[in-house]
Amino acid sequence: MSTALPITVIIPAYNEELRIGDALKSVGKVDEILVADSYSTDKTAEIARSYGARIIQRTFDYPANQKNWAIPQARNEWILLLDADERAHPNLLQELADLLQHGPTKDGYWIPRENIFMGRTIKHSWSSDKVVRFFKRDVCRYNDRRAHEEIIDNGNLGMLKNRLIHYTYRSLDHYVEKLNRYAEWQAEDYDAKTGSITIYHLWLKPAFRFVKHFLLKLGFLDGVPGLTIAYYQAYAVRLRYLKLAQLRRGKRS
Fold this sequence. Notes:
CATH class of the largest domain: Alpha Beta
Strand content: 15-25%
Shape: globular
Order of helices and strands: EHEHEHEEHEEEEEHHH
Distance between the termini: 60 Å
Structural class: alpha/beta
Helix content: 40-55%
Largest sheet: 10 strands, mixed
């Protein structure tokens, strides 16, 4: 594409100096790049400015809240939202250019993701992964959930063919750190809709999650990474309810 793609790319970031450069490089020539920075203490903002990004800053609360704050500040009607650990494939950018040239018929679009974990492309354990990341600024917002936020589905979403590349976790320690953070957020999301925590929540649901990723989704074909994913996904389910129990004890004390 010789001309700038008439979209705004939004990237939420905090201390992402090791990854944000590759994310920014992957979007190529676009009309606006907006980095929603949570007062990074490293070179995140400096690197972003070197790519021509506009920096907006706000203390981080949780992902949906941060993204919904950034979206109205885009100057273009159409937004491509990336996390710092994602890359836009050149074919995706061409698909967006063709879509805008012919006139989008939807308010937002699902984009499939190719997940990289432990140095390998995960073909089974996280199959069918897709996210709504290309959408109209004035129509779409994220639902008010603290974890695993999604664009509110207004029934007018399409599907793109080309992918985002997602470099999931830098290490197993990073994986566990993120699972802990998300479990704390999920505990708040689940408090009102979960009854008493039982053996079903602490053992049966985690066991099913393992079976789902390792057997039903054929995660065993992903080898050691597939086994690792199944184990940690089961751990994440159990951790969610342990955090919820902890949250409730804190409310009673």
